[in-house]
Amino acid sequence: MNEVYDEKVVDDIIKVVSRAGSKVGPFNGTLCTKTHQNDILDVFQDYIDAHHPAGQKKSNYYNNKVYTRFILISISTFYSPGNALNFVRSYSFNQPLLWQIEHIIPQKQAFHHWSKKNRRWKNSLGNLTLLRENTNVKISNGSFHLKKGKISQEEKALEINDIFNSISKVHLSKKDIKDRDENLRKQLNGIFFDRNGQLFLSKLYYF
Q1: Which residues of the chain are modeled with pLDDT < 50?
Q2: How many CB atoms lie within 10 A of CB 80?
Q3: Orientation of helix 7-19 relative to helix 34-51, angle to 10°
Q4: What is the sign of the dihedral through the CA atoms of 128, 133, 137 and 143?
Q5: Cβ neighbours for 182, distance < 8 A, ≥ 6 positions apart
Q6: Domain ranges across the chain
Q7: Which of 51, 61, 70, 168 is the most exposed place for a label (fewest CB within 10 A)?
Q8: Which helix (H) or strand (E) holds 2?
């Protein structure tokens, strides 16, 4: 999994899952057998469950960038078309300085202020994405409309950045962010939990 995730993410998975009492041995072994693949799936399921305790709803994903990187990289990788290994090698998500977490609607900008009512969506999963570091530097506090024009086709091709292709608005609404938030959560479950992780296991074949 070191080809998919950066060192901080892998270390966090091992730390969190070990603390929860699960075995993380599969990370150090081969993935060529079905047994090892199912063990890896168990590790990821335990990792996600540990970040979402029953009855608690996580709202600030910017405070835990490592876990948020895990989510965004996972969705990008396992919803990518074709060979997943070729995909991760071309995008190099395992290089933490190459890809950075960015707010879709900026935290601060001259024409947009987060009201008390909507403030909880500022650092929600629905308002965060991954962009290349050089893009992030150029458009850090730019509007959604500005970002649409500045990010590359490579970045727009990511599943997590579909919002830059599918919405023609100049400014996003709270509903847009809320809808994206719900969709990303469903996609995460779709990888690791739906149909016993079939999507994850099918993509693992390439590694």
Answers
A1: 29-33
A2: 18
A3: 80
A4: negative
A5: 126
A6: 7-204
A7: 168
A8: none
